[in-house]
Amino acid sequence: MTNKSEPLKLLLVDDETGYVEILSKRMSKRGIEVTAAYSGAEAIRAMRGRYFDAAVLDLKMEDMDGIEILKILRTMDSKMPVIMLTGHGSERAAREGIKYGAYDYLTKPCNFDELVTKIKTAGIGDNRGDGDGK
Question: What pTM was computed for the model?
């Protein structure tokens, strides 16, 4: 777990480049250190040998399904909280993500402050250990 003086380390996975860039800038202003991944494959590469306090994962992406990515991230770090982002009408798929270990989900477009609150709650909660990926 990150010390309170260190920024939260977030893995942000979404294939919408503009969305990721805007979220990254806004989150960095809130003291969250963002590593962006624009595909499932990039997210998996980012996880190798690195520690993240939490991840935000888009459910629908071009290269891999979000549930498939979630399952892989779970094997890499079983304790890292993952927040799923889903478009309207995909809440059922997001609930499936909860079944596979996602911490929570939000519907896009989501309220930024609500997303930040969920990230901070997940990233500093008691659900973190030393991290499998450390």
Answer: 0.86
- Note down the domain range covering 31: 8-124
- Do 68 and 90 contact (CB within 8 A), yes or no? no
Q: What is the mean pLDDT of residues 39-68?
A: 92
Phi-psi map region of 25: left, alpha, beta (phi>0 left; psi -120 to 50 alpha): alpha
Distance CA 80, CA 57 (A): 12
Which alpha helices (DSSP H) does the chain contain, by range?
A: 17-29, 40-47, 66-76, 91-99, 112-124
Report the CATH number that the domain containing residue 26 is assigned in CATH: 3.40.50.2300
Query: pLDDT (tens digit, 9 = 90+) per residue, 100-134?
Result: 999 999 988 889 999 999 999 998 764 444 444 43
pLDDT of residue 17: 94
